[in-house]
């Protein structure tokens, strides 16, 4: 594209905005007892350059501000009257580059055209409708009706809406957490963080609000992020009107248009816009065991000791709300835990990290230090009348911190000192932060509760959807300050776009059914492409009791979810409040049976163990995928459609997904499966369990102890020996599976390793291996490039060749001939090679 003028050049001179905007012709209606008006853009009468954006002013008064954020990211704001709200967002990355981006504005008789190196925005002079094109003039997205704003006397501007055209065979993905199939087309959704206890398929909304979606059509892809925290709605042609619309119930129409050559590029653009997640500590990628609740002290140790006695790997144990004194956050129930520090230390000696729950609701109790301090310092939310806003949760009536105030966040962070610094707890788990309140219909605080909103005072209507994000921000920032040497591990239930900068998420209160296993699979794929790669579900199901088969299949899926955590609703203490809608929780009939890996009998325990062992074997691969995610936002899990947006057979595929760069996972989500039909994306693959080449559509035989998955031809899959926990650094060898590629194409694989904790990696203390493989009929090369200064734990690398021609003549490592051994592994014969970790090239000759 031509970059003639920098964006800051004032554009074509135009007449000024008329001093008075006539509303005489506007459509003012009286409905019931309120007076309504709708405003739309009409003819553009003024174009101007103001505050680093182009403003297009219509004669109706509507003003459109277009800002070039990056060549592939444009921002559009609409104001019904030409005045914009203060520009502020909790979602955007703090390091969002504010630099000037080259853009050119030109015009034809009918349109204005704004061009960057990646995108073209066309705006019609009459109607002010927009169309987006890529640099090759291919239409990505266009308005149908464009912008509309509706106001009433009683509700103010309560509908700010954009209507776009549905493109032929367009598919939609994303929106964070929705409990439906992957393609959102034909459905309508709401974003309002909700405590969705025992949700089911198609329950909407759930706990999180992530107003970001992908559109894919004709092999093209783009994303739209509506940066508006009010309740928002997305309609993907649900009524066959050939249109797609999204609207907010307040605030401003403020959306970002993101272009990507492939869907994964859209994901990366979104990560640049809303922030990349921090690299987690390695233990957080180990196996986690949780239950509502483990107590007392002796029971927690018994669980830990059973893991070790049975040699089932595990890195973390969780304490749910019952560790607290009457559900008072930052306290301990001393009857059950007389020596918290001793417990945490005893767990640490056994190789376990302790994660504890913290809720936002602070019990109304003058004798409780957090409540008293919060009251004295003015830390809690108030209603518009100035009274402290209170609602019942587990501890009874509670007050809620205003996390949108930096002083409150500071205070909140400091409250973690005793647990995090003195007691030695490793991580926190933020629950009920939608915020959830026990009220049957509303489930949250009333609308008139006021929030500081960084000085932009707002009602709960505006704040609700970011409450969870800000609680996790306060907790995360506190952890960073209190232990600057540690990488925080924080898990949150509610969040908003951008919340990936602070916390991992789990999918909430699911149930122990096969349908829920299938749902957890698609939910985690969706969360991952919506910015939250660090996600997982309650393995085995939260309510109800799984049988051994369901539990094992769920664990196997969890191997590929960055958060691999078993959780269930066990025996727990009843709250001392009337638990209206969640009252059933105290019904003993709903109490689940044990859900530890050994709880299902001798037939299933070894299978559960094998699944967890597979996780630990694959840790180097998964850690690398998480590192990549923290670097550039590449989602760890990707929907099938992301593997090849041109392949229409993949667009509605729900079960199978990509994990990292090179694994295609086909989980078992039904009982008694013996054979599974798999459809692979283009290219050559190998079935992991027997090393057989695979492509296109095929059946695989499914063993109870195996989750079907495939490795891309040409890839290098790194594995570690199984350890009982990640603090055990006795790794004698790194094992690489090298997969032959018959096509002669180049394939790149990476392995990222570091200390697994702390920030030395920011000073080069890491080891990044980049492998490039290329093969032909008689020779296969593998080159290795190493970056970073971190000394790895092992002294040798074992290489296994998969899919290579049967007769290998010779093998050269860095030019010197090496003996190739044949070894038996998983009942097959494989070529093996043992070499030094710093080799630079291997060549195999057939
Ligand atoms: O009202 O802390 O989703 O994981 O075990 C229920 C008790 C409160 C809901 C969470 C669940 C947790 C439970 N919590």
Provide an overview of this structure.
The chain is an alpha+beta fold. It contains eleven helices and 53 strands. The strands form nine sheets. Strands 1, 2, 7, 8, 9, 10, 11, 12, 14, 17 and 18 form an eleven-stranded antiparallel sheet that branches. A hairpin with a 3-residue loop joins strand 8 and strand 9. The radius of gyration is 28 Å and the shape is globular. The site of ligand MIG has 11 residues, from loops.
The amount of beta strand, in percent, is 25-35%
Question: How many β-strand runs?
Answer: 53
Helicity, as a percent range: 10-25%
Low-confidence runs: 1-7, 9-26, 573-581
First-to-last CA distance: 48 Å
Inertia-based shape: globular
Radius of gyration: 28 Å
Bound molecules: ligand MIG
Q: What is the mean predicted local confidence, pLDDT?
A: 93
Class from helix and strand fractions = alpha+beta
**Count of runs of 4 or more consecutive helical residues:** 11
Largest sheet entry:
11 strands, antiparallel
């Amino acid at each position: 594209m031509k970059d003639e003028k920098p964006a800051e050049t004032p554009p074509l001179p135009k007449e000024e905005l008329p001093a008075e905007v006539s509303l005489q012709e506007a459509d003012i209606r009286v409905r019931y007892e309120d007076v309504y008006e709708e405003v739309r853009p009409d003819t553009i009468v003024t174009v101007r350059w103001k505050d680093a954006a182009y403003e297009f002013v219509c004669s109706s008064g509507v003003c459109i501000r277009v800002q070039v954020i990056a060549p592939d990211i444009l921002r559009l704001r609409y104001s019904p009257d030409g005045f914009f709200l203060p520009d502020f967002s909790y979602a955007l990355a703090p390091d969002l580059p504010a630099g000037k981006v080259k853009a050119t504005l030109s015009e034809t008789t009918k349109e204005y055209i704004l061009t960057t190196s990646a995108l073209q925005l066309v705006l019609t002079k009459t109607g002010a409708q927009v169309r987006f094109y890529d640099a090759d003039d291919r239409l990505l997205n266009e308005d149908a009706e464009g912008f509309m704003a509706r106001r009433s006397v009683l509700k103010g501007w309560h509908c700010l809406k954009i209507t776009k055209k549905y493109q032929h065979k367009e598919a939609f993905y994303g929106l964070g957490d929705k409990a439906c199939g992957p393609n959102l087309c034909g459905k309508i959704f709401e974003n309002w963080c909700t405590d969705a206890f025992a949700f089911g398929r198609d329950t909407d909304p759930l706990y999180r609000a992530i107003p970001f979606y992908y559109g894919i059509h004709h092999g093209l892809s783009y994303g739209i992020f509506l940066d508006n925290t009010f309740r928002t709605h997305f309609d993907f042609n649900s009524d066959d009107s050939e249109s797609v619309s999204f609207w907010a119930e307040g605030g401003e129409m403020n959306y970002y248009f993101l272009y990507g050559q492939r869907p994964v590029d859209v994901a990366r653009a979104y990560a640049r816009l809303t922030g990349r997640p921090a690299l987690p500590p390695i233990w957080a990628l180990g196996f986690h065991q949780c239950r509502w609740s483990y107590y007392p002290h002796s029971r927690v140790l018994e669980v830990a000791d059973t893991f070790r006695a049975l040699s089932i790997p595990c890195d973390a144990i969780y304490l749910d709300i019952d560790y607290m004194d009457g559900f008072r956050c930052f306290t301990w129930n001393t009857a059950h835990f007389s020596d918290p520090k001793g417990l945490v230390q005893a767990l640490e000696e056994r190789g376990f990290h302790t994660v504890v729950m913290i809720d936002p609701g602070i019990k109304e109790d003058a004798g409780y230090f957090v409540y008293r301090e919060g009251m004295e310092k003015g830390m809690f939310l108030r209603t518009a009348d100035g009274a402290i806003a209170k609602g019942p949760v587990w501890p009874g009536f509670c007050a809620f911190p205003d996390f949108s105030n930096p002083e409150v966040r500071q205070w909140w962070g400091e409250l973690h000192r005793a647990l995090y610094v003195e007691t030695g707890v490793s991580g926190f788990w933020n629950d009920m932060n939608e915020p959830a309140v026990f009220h049957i219909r509303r489930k949250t605080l009333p609308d008139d509760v006021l929030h500081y909103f960084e000085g932009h005072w707002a009602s709960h209507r505006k704040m609700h959807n970011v409450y969870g994000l800000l609680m996790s921000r306060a907790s995360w920032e506190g952890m960073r300050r209190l232990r600057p040497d540690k990488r925080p591990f924080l898990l949150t239930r509610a969040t908003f776009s951008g919340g990936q900068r602070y916390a991992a998420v789990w999918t909430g209160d699911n149930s122990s059914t096969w349908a829920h296993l299938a749902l957890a699979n698609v939910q985690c794929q969706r969360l991952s492409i919506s910015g939250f790669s660090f996600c997982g579900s309650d393995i085995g199901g939260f309510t109800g009791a799984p049988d051994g088969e369901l539990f094992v299949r769920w664990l196997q899926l969890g191997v590929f979810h960055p958060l691999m955590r078993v959780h269930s609703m066990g025996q727990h203490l009843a709250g001392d409040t009337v638990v209206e809608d969640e009252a059933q929780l105290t019904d003993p009939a709903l109490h689940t049976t044990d859900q530890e890996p050994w709880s299902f009998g001798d037939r299933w325990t070894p299978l559960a163990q094998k699944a967890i062992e597979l996780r630990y074997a694959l840790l180097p691969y998964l850690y690398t995928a998480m590192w990549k995610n923290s670097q550039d936002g590449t989602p760890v899990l990707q929907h099938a459609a992301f593997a090849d947006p041109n392949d229409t057979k993949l667009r509605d595929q729900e079960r199978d997904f990509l994990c990292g760069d090179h694994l295609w996972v086909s989980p078992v989500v039904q009982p008694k499966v013996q054979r599974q039909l798999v459809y692979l994306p283009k290219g050559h693959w190998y079935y992991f369990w027997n090393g057989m080449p695979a492509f296109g559509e095929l059946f695989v035989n499914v063993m109870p102890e195996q989750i079907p998955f495939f490795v891309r031809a040409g890839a290098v899959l790194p594995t570690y020996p199984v350890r009982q926990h990640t603090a055990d650094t006795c790794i004698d060898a790194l094992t690489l599976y090298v997969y032959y590629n018959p096509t002669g194409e180049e394939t790149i694989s990476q392995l990222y390793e570091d200390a697994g904790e702390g920030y030395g990696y920011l000073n080069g203390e890491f080891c990044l291996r980049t492998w490039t493989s290329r093969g032909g009929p008689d020779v296969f090369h593998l080159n290795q490039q190493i970056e970073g200064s971190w000394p790895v734990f092992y002294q040798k690398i074992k290489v296994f060749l998969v899919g290579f021609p049967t007769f290998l003549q010779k093998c050269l490592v860095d030019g010197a001939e090496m003996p190739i051994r044949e070894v038996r592994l998983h009942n097959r014969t494989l070529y093996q090679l043992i070499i030094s970790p710093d080799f630079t090239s291997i060549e195999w000759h057939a």
